[in-house]
Every structure is written in C-alpha cells, then in structure tokens.
Amino acid sequence: MEPTSRSKVWQWWVAGLLLLATMINYMDRQTLSNLAVRITQQFDLSNEQYGDMEFVFGIAFAVGSLFFGIIADRVPVRLLYPAILVAWSAVGFATGLARGYTSLLVCRCLLGFFEAGHWPCALIVTQAVMSRGNRVMGNSILQSGASLGAILTPIVIRLMIGDSTEPDAWRTPFFVIGGIGVAWAFVWLAVIRRGDLQRQDSAEPAASQNEASSRSSEPHDSDRHAPGRWIWTLLTDRRFWALTCMVIAINTSWQLIRAWLPKFLQEGRGYSEAEALYFNSTYFIFTDVGCIAAGVVAMWLVRRGLRVHTSRVLVYLGCSLLAGLTTLAAVLPQGWPLLATLLCVAAGTLGVFPCYYSFTQEVSVTHMGRLTGMLSFIGWLASSPTQKLFGYVVDQTGSYDFNLAILGWSPLLGLILFLVLWPRHTSDDADAALPNV
Fold it and tell me: Is residue 359, in this structure, part of any structural domain at all?
C-alpha cells in the first residue's frame, strides 16, 4: 500500500523540498564555523569559548528536539514546519547584529533550539510519503541537504567578504543567509496540500498491515494519549537503546568535525582563510556523495535480494570505516594526502545518517515525532559537552591532532553497540512481511 494518494513523482519533489530545508538549516548553522577565526579574533575569544558557543547550541538543540518532537505529533506538520524554519532563519539574521561573546551565546542558543524542529518534522514527512524500501534513499536526499548547505556557505561567504580586512565584514553573510528561509516556506505551503501528510494511526503507512502488526512494541491507537505508558513501552524496548548508542556516536563525530574543520585547517595545518573555505566546500561535496551513495547502495543491495535490515547494516559499516580515517589525517602534514583523506572521512561521517534514520522509522508510526525528538535530545545532550572539551584540549596542547585521531572511530563503536542491542527477530519479521520493496 502506498503512503499517499499523490503520484510517485510528487513524492520525490517533496524529498527535494526537504533537501532544501536541510540546506537552509546548515547554511545558518555553518556560517559561524566558517567565520570562526575572524569572529574569535575580533572578540578575543579562546578556543574553549568558541567551544562554549557550540556547546550551548548543542544543549539548546537537545531541548528543542524534545520539545518539537512532542509538538510535531500534535500539530499539523504542514504548518509547523515552515513556522520553525522562518524562526531559525530570523535568529540567523540576528546573529549578524551580535556585539560580543554574550550576544553570540544567546543567538547560538536560540538557533539551536529552533533548528532542532527541522528533524522531527522532516522524518515524519519521509515516513508518510516513502515506502519502506525507499526510505534510505528518501532520507539520503533529506540528509544530503546538510552537505549542500555546507558546500554553499563557504562559497557565499567568500563571494561576500573576499579578502576584506574590515572588522565587521563577517556580519553580512549572516544577514543574507538568514533571509533565505521565508521563500522556502511559501513554496512548501504551495506544494503540500491539506491532508497530504495525514497521520495514519491504524496501520503502517509505508508498508503492509502484516509488517505493522509484527511490531509488538508499537503502542496501540488507544495509547496515543497515554504518554506515560508509551514512554514506558519505549524505554523497555531494546531497539530504543540500540538507537540511543548509535545517535550519540554518529552525532559526536559529525558535529565536532563540522564545527572545528575550518580552524583545524587554518590554525592546525597553516592553510589560508580562502584555502580553508574552498576546501570546506569540497569536503561537504564529498559528504553529499557519501550520503547519496549510502542510499543508492542500500537500494541496490535490497534489489539484489539482501534483507533490508542487513543492507543498512553493511552500508553503515562501510561508512564507519571511512570515518575512522581521521586517525590517518591526524598524522599527515599539509598537502594533498591530508586533503584526500579528509574527503574520505567526509563521505563516511554523513553516510551513516540515512541508515540511522531508517532504523528509527522501524520503531514507531504514531509517535515518530516524539521518538526522533527523544533520540535527538539524548544525542545532542551527550555529544555537546565534547565541543567544550575539544576546545580545552586544543588550548592546553596547542594541537588538534589528538582529538582528530580518536574522533573518527565513534560511528563504528555505535554500530557495535547497536548490533548487540538490536533484537534480530524484529528485523527478520519486518523483512518477511514486505514481499516487494
């Protein structure tokens, strides 16, 4: 059964809109890290203080994930989604008005809170419009917007400020990038009609009735308004704890590299600002390649007869091994081997995310927003303090190398813990209930 009465072509257009939303999300997020050297120099901030800004962003993102995860299950996503996007865009614009450390912290906190609402909304949408076999691909398109936004941000910044030495030159990109979200909101409301994302409580919208009934841990419709019972059911589900380990692991590696790569290139390896910005764009091109490749390979493996769950595990494993190449990057000097290694890391660190999203969509239908919100809350709450720790270690040692060497192995650790905790019979039953994907 198809998740929606709209055409399959329309479903992929919706995936494209989700890609653009993620792109805007990351452009607002990445503007600070790409301008970190200028901003920290102007306000005389230490690496630990810069880490504090990312720490505050992460904690606010955790709180926002939980808040908007609950709200997304209660408020129509068709209206909630654009409202959230316009809110974080406004905060991004306001960051350009910051006058010091405190105002930067406040803006970063608000940005994290509102940006968190993107993910529960987006995953509800892909669950509603995509079939189970296509979800990794749909989630790959959604997640690849992160790469696209990160690719464009350094280029946009470079075009705006060039080699300007004006102290406040860094402010303009915040104003321009922060103003993009309004246009997306109008397009979204034009493309998504009322009823297109109607939640189906009685059955799994993206698979068969048999598959839905096989999920013994999914609360019945009568439990929708019994949050205490739902939470207890979730907390006693091994799949939830498997996903908790995975999201902490992949979020830690991805967010630390995202935040510190420009400073590592400039201060750790001696690249100029222009060189670091251009490579940062290239880096995120490869994250996009890795993200889309993960979806393509997963679909190919399924069509070759491999079980859906197994295909996701194998794709994740391959990506996590690429992420582990940070150990090699930590000992390489400036030069093309270092940059080539970092590009491999790029593909791996983002390629794991579509697999993780698809695993989460196996656990719940009616509470998808709350589930993803809780997982995101835990993931950000656990990983955010490492931003401050990262900066502290750099201040103390004068080097980024130790942090980088161990960082890339986090996704593999997450996979090991996931495989230990995830019940095998659950994935086998789900695959058996889905004859055509």
Answer: yes
Instruction: Tell me the residue type at 70.
Output: I
> Residue holding tokens 């890609």?
19
What number is the average pLDDT over the span 78-83?
A: 92
End-to-end CA distance of the chain: 11
The answer for residues whose C-beta is within 8 angstroms of residue 433's C-beta and 6 or more apart is 207, 208, 210, 211, 214
User: Does the structure show a pLDDT above 90 at 312?
Assistant: yes
3-state SS, residue 423: coil
Q: What is the DSSP letter of 222?
A: G
Own/partner pairs, 210-216, CB within 8 angstroms, 24+ separation? 210/433, 211/132, 211/429, 211/430, 211/433, 211/434, 212/365, 214/426, 214/429, 214/430, 214/433, 215/362, 215/363, 215/426, 215/430
Burial class (CB in 10 A: 0-12, 13-18, 19+), 277: buried
Q: Is 389 a member of any domain? A: yes
Q: Any idea what the CATH number is for the domain that residue 307 is in?
A: 1.20.1250.20
Residue range 208-247, pLDDT digits in tens: 333 444 444 444 444 444 556 777 888 888 999 999 999 9
Identify whether 219 is part of a domain: no
- The answer to whether residues 380 and 62 touch, using CB atoms and an 8 Å cutoff, is yes
- 128 part of a folded domain: yes
| pLDDT, position 242 | 95
In order of 5, 21, 40, 156, 271, the CA distances from 162 in angstroms are 49, 27, 18, 10, 16
pTM for this prediction: 0.71
Question: DSSP label at 163?
Answer: T
- In the predicted model, is pLDDT for residue 57 greater than 80? yes
Q: How many structural domains are present in the chain?
A: 1
- Residues in Cβ contact with 212 at an 8 Å cutoff, skipping those fewer than 6 apart: 203, 204, 218, 365
